[in-house]
Ft-interacting protein 1
Amino acid sequence: MILSNLKLGVEVVGAHNLLPKDGQGSSSSFVELYFDGQRFRTTIKEKDLSPVWNETFYFNISDPSNLHMLVLDAYIYNNIRATQSRSFLGKITINGTSFVPYSDSVVLHYPLEKRSIFSRVRGELGLKVYIIDDPSIKSSTPISATNDTQVHSHSAQTPALKIPRSEVRHTFHHLPNPNHPQQQQQAPPPVAVHHQGARYMTDEMKVPTEPQPPPQLVRMHSATMAQPVDYALKETSPFLGGGRVVGGRVIRTDRMSGCTYDLVEKMHFLFVRVVKARELPAMDVTGSVDPYVEVRIGNYKGITKHFEKNQNPLWNVVFAFSRERMQASVLEVVVKDKDLLKDDFVGLCRFDLNEVPMRVPPDSPLAPEWYRLADKKGEKIKGELMLAVWIGTQADEAFPDAWHSDAALSVDTAASTLIRSKVYHAPRLWYVRVNVVEAQDLIPTEKTRFPDAYVKVQIGNQVLKTKPVQARTFNPLWNEDLLFVAAEPFEDNLVLTVEDRVAPGKDEIIGRVIIPLSMVEKRADDKMIHSRWFNLEKPVAIDIDQLKKEKFSSRLHLRVCLDGGYHVLDESTHYSSDLRPTAKQLWRPPIGVLELGVLNAVGLHPMKTREGKGTSDTYCVAKYGHKWVRTRTIVDNLCPKYNEQYTWEVFDPATVLTVGVFDNSHLGDKGSNGTKDLKVGKVRIRISTLETGRVYTHSYPLLVLHPTGVKKMGELHLAIRFTCTSFANMLYKYSCPLLPKMHYVRPFTVMQLDMLRHQAVNIVAMRLGRAEPPLRKEVVEYMSDVDSHLWSMRRSKANFFRLMSIFTGLFAVGKWFGDICMWKNPITTVLVHVLFLMLVSFPELILPTVFLYMFLIGVWNYRYRPRYPPHMNTKLSQAESVHPDELDEEFDTFPTSRSPELVRMRYDRLRSVAGRIQTVVGDVATQGERFQSLLSWRDPRATALFVTFCLIAALVLYVTPFQVIAALIGIYMMRHPRFRHRLPSVPINFFRRLPARNDSML
């Protein structure tokens, strides 16, 4: 690209729903464009609130390297002919970072903004803005600064072209991404401007002289520029099942008003249900047949399993073929006989796709029919096949369980279970509280000594022990609480074993108690649980006469309950998707519904090699509350289209939806139990950041941290909508505690929470791994952020800088106050003095002024509110500048697997970091101890001085009005620099001389 020929092209297409300003219910509007010191103006459209200009202007770009700092301003005015003046109708501002090449430019309709807080505006302005590098295009002639009242018409005028607004209007909320790979190529526009209108026509309005370009996604990045643009969020304007998404709204049409799948693109499939066959002809010498069915259309085919020696087989399977990939007009359903060398042909049925009926739910499912088999010549033969063939969409009931042509090629029905979409429900988890009180009449193996007893409690793979009690008695007392996690249905037993530590490393079992969890009492609050005595049983079989002779009657005193008043944390506390307690009687009604449409993924990195080329077999997993969903696996595709929609009930806005993308590693010969599904990336969306009723269609970058650094694995296109069903309940939620009541009445320690969360994740992973298709452990752990508590130098630095950013506001206020005290701006300083004296004179105005100021700040920031859900920020995460050794440390196993020399180096580095943290903590403690020493007489002279000062201050304050004291202190602090000294003040010197307790530190 030759930078000297760069120009900024702006096509003013039209406006919509402008504010009437001429007193007759209309406006005569025109547009003025400002960019890089140049100004252009369109013609006037008389008496039109939705004018269409279709006028194009070209600005010179003086310095292309400075383009990202420039802005394009567009003002709409109403022309007042009588007075040769104009009135303001609205404006928009477009940053230079949003300019894209012509090949990627589309018409965007920008909501008009106010010029001031008192302005009244409405409507949208449609512009097409792009960068062009074509020497044949000449720049437009700008308007002189003195020509404000004249209306200058551009030489390349075009007749007004009425454009279907439902087809072209994209409401602008974020800025397009100029660094996207699809935006690197550009082509010059046609010189004849009047042909450009054809680019916005529908398929029915195509102009033969110019080919219709492919549909463009409106890719936009978030307002923050703290990280590379390629890693930022991008908003799109797709055409979904409910209609075009424009500005977060679905623009419906009459024929789409009843669509239930309105957050995904409607996809048509040819469904073939193969039910059964009867009276198949014998093909073997034994007079039998081993039948299976092969469904073929073009290059796609699906195969059922075969039955041994069965002339009346039953399959009842459904095949779904993507209609957009079909390259044939005939469907063949062939029955074959399984053979060792070559399968024999039995018969077939043919269907013309033009005759296949269309089915749209809620229509009843199509009834299968019997079809006579025919030979290859079309003549009827013996045997019949029961089939149902129809065309439907992903809203069809058969869609989730069907074998999909876009998910796999030539995969039999047995293997297709690994690629189907499924909905999973995680088990309901309970906390099990075991209070081991005491034991009675323990009988050790050695009668000459008292037992050194402890109790081992086990539920499944969870094992905890009480502390050993070395008591001079056979009735040891523990009174310890042990906590476990259990899942419904309760399949495990609670096993308690009393053991005696005979010698170091040698324990002997005294007795055992087995309690079924289904028999344990449940509670939803902190009511007292009645204790029970349980008889200990000998662990091995002994002679009954010997048992009677020894009178084995040892008992164990326990309190056991299932605590349902807690929420069992099975995910990171920062990204919880559910905060309800376990007990259902404590659940409140839902506040809304969350709908997710998983549209597609683009630009995925190859995760494996097949037939000499890189490819991926990806599926998506979404997790919210107890409900997990998994889309079907799209095989051998780096730009898969899922178009599946799911729904959840929302009970709390402070929850997070997590969507992850994974590569299926269990297809074909490589699938094995030792292979793990590879993570591609994930997205988190907090429900409280979503506006009610708005449709968010964004393309999320899939960012993953690898040992080599942060890497973008592709983009995931989602459509999200949160609908509030009870606004009052949602507002009430903001006044409720985040966690259930029991977490505050009987809280757990941090160590207990970490241990219980680890056990909960293992239980959920084990249960979901037993489903079909299984949701494997590595998927559950990645979605639940199981490793978020492990040490990471990168994460520690990120949290430190987050903490520092919290205080940037205070630092800014301190710097501003320092400038006031130094009289850098005398006018501002005088105004602050006046305001300060006014507030001192009327102290009752201080709090109202503070709250009014905060109110005004909030109202002012409303116009700059984010219009997109927050996403992962590589700059905030310190993922861009992280050292390779720190990444290697972060990806190290726990416990470590590195060499002792490397571990020693990292340990020394950790000691250095911890030493600096230790110094900061010590300095903060020192300042607090100095405050304490003011009145503690640790320094008798300092305390005597301070006590004397307090007495004098009390007398002065008693006789002097408070306003006078406050005014003198404030004026003294803001005194002129000529009255200041560089040395610290007397109070600071006095405070720094006070003693602290660091003198007592070893």
Observations:
- The chain has five domains: 7-132, 268-421, 429-541+551-563, 584-784, 793-1000.
- The radius of gyration is 37 Å.
